[in-house]
Amino acid sequence: MKVLNSAIVTMLFGCGSLFGANYAVDIAHTNVVFKVKHMMISTVSGQFEDFTGSFELDDKTNQLKALKGEIEVDSINTNIEDRDAHLKSSEIFDAQKYPKIAFVLDKVKGDKAYGKLTIKDVTKDVVLDYEFGGTIVDPGGKKRAGFTLNGTIDRREYNVTWNRVLEAGGVAVGEKVKIEVAVEGILSK
Question: How far apart are CA 75 and CA 186, in angstroms?
Fold first, then answer.
C-alpha cells in the first residue's frame, strides 16, 4: 500500500514535468520597461535591470502555463540618476522597505494573461496582453522561448501616489503606467 501511495503521489506531482517545459528567464535578452506621462505633455521611459523569473510552457501547445517573476526595485533606470534616486526613495517606491516587485501568472486565455502584481505592500489582479513569440533551438543547442506582456496599471492603486501640481494646471507625473515586458527564457535541464 505504501508503494502504491508513493506511486500515486509521484504521478500527481510529476505530471507537470511530463507535459510542460520549464524555462529560466534570460536576463540578458529580457526587458522590463515602463512608461509614464511627464508634465502631461510627454512620456518618460524607464526599465528595471535586475530581475529573476521562470515560466512553464505546455510541450504540445506552447501555451504559457505558469510564470513567476521578481524585480529588484533598486535596479530602476531612467538614465537620470537624480530621478532614479527619487523613484527609489520613500516618497515613491520605498525600495529599502519594499525591495521587490512580483508577478505571478494565474492563467492565459487567448491573448490575455491574468495574474497578480505586487508593488510595495499591495497585490492586485491584472490583465495583460499576451503574445507568444515562439520557440527555437539556438546555435549553442539550447531551447529558447519568448513572449511579451503589455498592459496599463494605475500606480495609485499600489500606494505609489507622489505627485506635484503644476502651476499651469495638471500634474507632474501621470497616474497610468504602461508596462512592456519582453521575455526570453532558456529551457531548464
Answer: 22
